Amino acid sequence: MSVAVAGWDSHEITDGARHGARFDVLVRRRARTPAAGAGAVPAGTSGDGAARSQSQLAECDTSGLSHVPTPLGTAVSPGQEARGPARSLAPMGSPALRPYDRTAATVPATPAPSAVSGSATAFGDLPSVKAMGTGRAGIVVGFDTEFTTNDGVRVIDSFQFATPDPLDPTVMVEVVILPPLGSTSRLSLHTALWTVVVAARLWESPLVPDEVGPRGVPRGAFWTDDWHDRREALAKLRVPIVLACHYGSADLTTFRTGGQSRELDSLVRLTSAAGGLVTLLPFRSQRGNENGHWWQSLSVSVRDTMSQAPAGKKSLAVLGEACGVTKLDVPEGWISRMTDYRREHLDEFLEYGINDAVIVVEYLARLWGDGVVPPITLSGGAAAALVDSGSSYLGASSPSEFRRKFAGLVDEDEGVEAVEEGDRLSFYAKRGRNPLDGAAAQLSSAFARAYHGGLNSCPMPGYYPTPSVDIDAQNAYPTAMALVRDLDWEAGAIEEVVHERALAVDDVSSAATPFVGFVSFEFPADVVYPCLPIVADGTLVYPRTSEGVAGTWVCGPELWLALRLGAVVHCQIGYLGRELGQDGGPSLSLRHGVKQLIDDRNAAKKIFGKGSLEEQTLKTGVNSVYGKTAQDVAEQHSWDARAQEMDNVGGSAVSSPYHAATTTSFVRAQLLATMNQIVEHGGQVYSVTTDGFITDCTVDEVAALDLYGLADVLRESRTALTGDPDIWEAKHGQDDLVNFTTRGNVSLDLGGVCAHNGLKTPKEIVRDSIEDREMLLVSVATREGRVPNGYTRFPSFQELSRTEDRKDFLPSRVERSVSMDYDLKRRPVMTSMVGAMVPLPDGSISEMATFTTEPWERVEDCLRARLIAREIAQTGCLRTVAEWRDWDVRYAHGKGRRIVTPQRAMLMSIVMAHRQGIVVIPTLADRSLSIAERLDWLAEWGLGTVSRGDWDNARRPERAAQMLPTDVLAPYLDRMAAMASGERPTDADRRPY
Asked: What is the value of pTM for the model shown?
């Protein structure tokens, strides 16, 4: 007998004939929250749908897949008026096992007037929002679960769903499915969703074919003898569902998989994106009843509100506040005992559970419109908006034409064979695309090698009990993107090739000059912050010279700055891009697209209020566009659940090595120019992180710097985007600073910095609170080795979705320790080192070495210094002056790099030089030869052998730092480069030089 609860209609289902477990189904219909902006009845919906539904419900079979409660009236909870908001007034809350909701678990959320004012339609009318959204109608079903963990086993206490009535979207249909109390029984996804289809009459939606009823469709409506044909025919008779959840790793893993050969494994159809689980394309779920007379067909798209929420606003409590549905809470002590809570307080349990599913639906309705399929992620929506605005700006009539004009890419089947298979960049190869021509291929490859991450460093480790301020570059990446000039890919993207000569100032006449080159360099000794990066040891190192390595790939902005700092720069190979014109000036499609997003964000701020969901959504869109231009430019791998292997993520709709590499080069150049001028004016820079730095200068003092001419360029961009020329803003200020390593500093001032360097804050401590700051300071200032920092983790998406040894969503303890030592990206100036005494919260003091740094002379020196520090960290640390002096002795008297097999080093450097595009060796470039034949030819030179893996890896950008200088390679390299393909080396060629 099914459970009876006041206000809910109930019945039982079984999960198919082979699974005897019975589940209670509770259904309720309630008026929706007015603030959520429930839309009108979708066009095409007939007024007699309800009558038709009742007559067909009477014909349902007893398979357990087609039950529905009656009557279907609208329930009203105690204290709620008939058309009032569908939410309980009881103070209940959030799931303890959803990490992103923990901080809100004890703080009841209340609707903010500014957040629930305005019209969802007005937001949807903004051009960027139109372009970000799909605009496609969809049946959105909110989903959530409750579960209890007992002795390492997860017991599912309930599945809850919420979806607007397809005939009257002012009504929310709420469905809760209860497994047997305390059992380990789980429900299949298909059974759960079809139960919702029937309970909410989703088969009456205008998006569902008329042939579909509560039992699905009869066999005769689609059956043929051919399996493929009937599967395709049944797919057309589907109910299309957008299954939306919050933090899907917890909920989407609750369904039963396996057990039957035809059982749907939904997890292998999912992809991890932006903190949530989603589908890139809908997947099918088709099932017949016991006798095969009736068939049900679903098309399922999955969306996760973790991927739909602005940064810093991802908890379900915040999303509920934004859409006018208060996040509920459970009384203290029950959150880990939900099975008991259900047994003893079923009414409250149901209110608590269904509320989360309602929030998901109302949040997405508020964001994209009621009954609209959301984009896969906010950043993906932002990329779509950029394609839309860029197409208009560049005069492109389709996304493919936009890619051609914006990034020089065409579809694979257009017959362009500019790149050998093994040399294709993953960002376009994964998406079935190719460069437009050889020039586009060469230029894209060069800029991909010159794409580096953000500037992060700690120039002054130690304790500084003096005023300092954390200054950020305002919208650093959008500002830089607005300066990137488009290239004329169709006219031949390379304007000029620079080969084996010193660069002059006129070669890179402005910071926006579209130039990329492989260069060697030397900065004057008085330049405190050299600005040409070398990738080494997994990070960016800025040495004074490139001595000891062949060179580095660098973009125009940093080359422009280097030449103005007086560096001698030798370009071994470089390319000047051909600029595209627009209205008498340079074409700036990124500026146009970013400005549209910023304009719409400002409009949303006026309509909905500063800090509103709408304004923050567009802010996230603005900030995420850069990341989409850089997607998979530096190869990124993720778990492909369907293929059960790691694979490249592939590029986005706007991936472009040129735009991405130039943008991030601009940001690094801005910071490095500022840091050099601060020092020139007598100031100090303590730390720098991506788009800001900590200094003893004021914002006004920094704003007065001309940055060698770059400040005017940045102000022009800011003015064009926002109307405001200011490029700097103060973020934090403090009177004390413990600065221990890159991304690691702390102040006890609550308004000051607090960066943990990967040290995880215990869940009982509020991040950035005084308790958090004191814990971090004590951990750093008193350490005698690595800092113990165990934490609780949940399985990764790979672990949750692999078909063998799959894990459930259960927490596990990770025991680890973290080094808080300075990372030696710059050389400590030992003569400046003093033992500063850091005051601790308990009144005691502890020593911390405090010193300035200078650039390393060579990358090799940096790598050796870091290696020594790692050895010390195995048993101790580098905190006191005495410990640093011990390090200095080891460094000063240690040996340099030892090349065990110099021939091998030379051979690999030659391969790298060719694969990096620095030199061309005819035989290695001959595409008529197989890779194996080319490698055999290399083996004939007597320097050793090269494997296929060596060949493939030699083109990776970070390998440039391992390449010997070309003058060292010259005896062999010159001969190889001069030898025509087909010629073979003789004994004279193989003689030692």
From this structure: 0.83
